[in-house]
Amino acid sequence: MALRFGKDLGCRIVLVDTGFGRTQSDSCYVVTQRAPSGDRLAIIDTGTNFSIPRILATIKDLGCSYDQVSYIILTQIYLDHAGGAGLLMQNCPNAKLLLHPRGVRHLIDPNSLRAVAISLYGESRVDKEYGNLIPIQPRRIIEVQDGDLINLAGRMLTILETPGNAKHHLCIWDELSQGVFTGDTFGLSYPELVTSQGPFVFPATSSTHFDPRSLRGSLKKVLALNPSCLYFSHFGSLKEVPQIYEAFSKLLEEVENLGKKLKFADNRHEFLKEGLLNIYTQALRNQGCELTDTKVQQLLAIDIEKNAQGMGIWLS
After folding, report:
1. Fewest C-beta in 10 Å: which of 3, 77, 86, 217?
2. How many CA atoms lie within 13 A of 108 on its CB side?
3. CB 89 within 8 A of CB 136
């Protein structure tokens, strides 16, 4: 099976590189299950409008048609995860969109999502990176909450409410693979930063709802399932779950302490960016990363900017 934009992860799960930002930065997942009438598909997160041709191509590469998509499940409504949901729903006539109740109104009328993005990045950048956000009809949306079971032709997916990165954040437990689709709950893990000691993970604090206390509870909730694998939105799948949890928890504590130290600082945003870069770089050095400081800064520049913005909102 040749996949132009995807990678077969086993257990009938395919990672699709959405192409957002750069390669191996942002991913969504196509989950399939055999059924007498033909495979049924669930797609977890969509990327942006410009990611949709990659998802549609992957569906075709799997030998499936768009009308075999039963569910599109969003871990969150931020545009790198959900910006393409309306366009994908247009192409998948039998699909239902599943998301947290807090996010529903923003997918029915995405104007406020676009307005927030424009306030942060400017209209020209929003048009270039996200395109035109397409509304979704309410009758095609299903609100899901903690513990809800999604039956994909006998393959059971369980919804987990996991606040901390965002109040409306969801993870998805897949019984077959014994894996969890983590969205941003376990942060970010880029392949360029993997070392001989394993993957490097760091918190995603960019959300306006960042809350470290809630996030710790969500981490423990996922860990209690004893998952064999974590499927990251940024980026790829990782199996070293206890190691990832310990490293992530340590960095989360450092990041939280940095924020508390700088809560009342003048020019706080710049100091947060400097502090985050120092924390990430030192952790990478401790893990044996041999990239230059300049290369590390280049790879993480966008995340540092966004994470500092989110922390500023949390501190305010």
Report:
1. 217
2. 12
3. yes
Same fold for the pair 1-99+101-143 and 148-316: yes
List own/partner pairs for 221-227 with CB under 8 A and 24 or more apart.
221/160, 221/162, 222/160, 222/162, 222/171, 222/180, 222/182, 222/185, 222/186, 225/173, 225/180, 226/178, 227/173, 227/178, 227/179, 227/180
Q: How many alpha carbons lie under 13 Å from residue 291 in its C-beta half-sphere?
A: 22
Query: Which amino acid, 297?
Result: Q
Alpha-carbon distance 223 to 217, whole Å? 10
- Residues β-bridged to residue 160: 171
148-316 to CATH, choices 3.30.2010, 2.30.30, 2.40.50, 3.60.15 = 3.60.15
Question: H or E segment at 238?
Answer: strand 236-238
pLDDT digit string (tens) for 162-186?
999 999 999 999 999 999 999 999 9
**CATH says 1-99+101-143 is which class?**
alpha beta
Residue closest to 182 by CA, chosen among 141, 226, 237: 237
Q: For 139, which DSSP code?
A: G
DSSP class of 173? E
Q: Note the pLDDT tens digit of each residue in 112-142.
A: 999 988 887 889 988 999 999 999 999 999 9
Strand order in the sheet with 179-183: 149-152, 155-161, 170-174, 179-183, 229-232, 236-238
Query: Amino acid letter at 277?
Result: L
What's the longest Cα–Cα distance across the chain?
Answer: 64
The two three-digit tokens of residue 170, written as one number: 């969801």
Two structure tokens written together for 206: 């960019």
* Residue ranges covered by each domain of the chain: 1-99+101-143, 148-316
